[in-house]
Amino acid sequence: MSCGEPHETDCSEVLDHLYEFLDREMPDSDCTKFEVHFEECSPCLEKYGLEQAVKKLVKRCCGSDDVPTDLRAKVMGRIDLIRAGQAVPEHDVTASHDVTPAPQEQ
Questions:
Q1: Taking 70 as the threshold, does the pLDDT of residue 20 lie above it?
Q2: Contact assessment for residue 88 and residue 80, using Cβ atoms and an 8 Å cutoff
Q3: How many CA atoms within 13 Å lie on the side-chain side of 32?
Q4: Is 34 left (phi over 0), alpha (psi -120 to 50) or beta?
Q5: What is the C-alpha to C-alpha distance for residues 21 and 13, in angstroms, rounded to an integer?
Q6: Is residue 22 a contact partner of residue 30, using CB atoms and an 8 Å limit?
Q7: What confidence tens digit (pLDDT) does each residue in 39-61 have?
Q8: 64 phi and psi, to 5 degrees?
Q9: Distance between CA 30 and CA 101 in Å, rounded?
């Protein structure tokens, strides 16, 4: 997605890091760059608004569910491995929990 106009911060960079912006997991200087971009680029602003609405909906519908402590630790450990650029185990982190897989069509 792009409006076709040149921007100081490219649309692809904004969209690639949109969730980091939404979650405020980026430096303030990058947040400022994204805010400037949204003022200039209505397609990216629209995408931001949509993702923000989805995030709020998920929080409202699922925000009260407790996550088992061991599952949270496994997921956070996997995220740390990915951020460090290390190999990530192929097994499913939810395998030790009662997670019923979705039925597959034949």
A1: yes
A2: no
A3: 3
A4: alpha
A5: 11
A6: no
A7: 999 999 999 999 999 989 888 88
A8: -95, -5
A9: 39
Give Rg (Cα) of the chain. 18
The one-letter amino acid at 49: G
Return the residue matching tokens 């969209």: 15
Residue spans of alpha helices (H) in the chain: 11-16, 18-22, 28-40, 42-62, 69-83
CA angle 6, 9, 10 (to 5 degrees): 60
Considering only CA atoms, which of 26, 15, 24 is closest in space to residue 50?
15
Distance between CA atoms of residues 66 and 84, nearest Å: 27
For 64, 77, 78, the CA distances from 73, given in Å and listed in that order, are 18, 6, 9
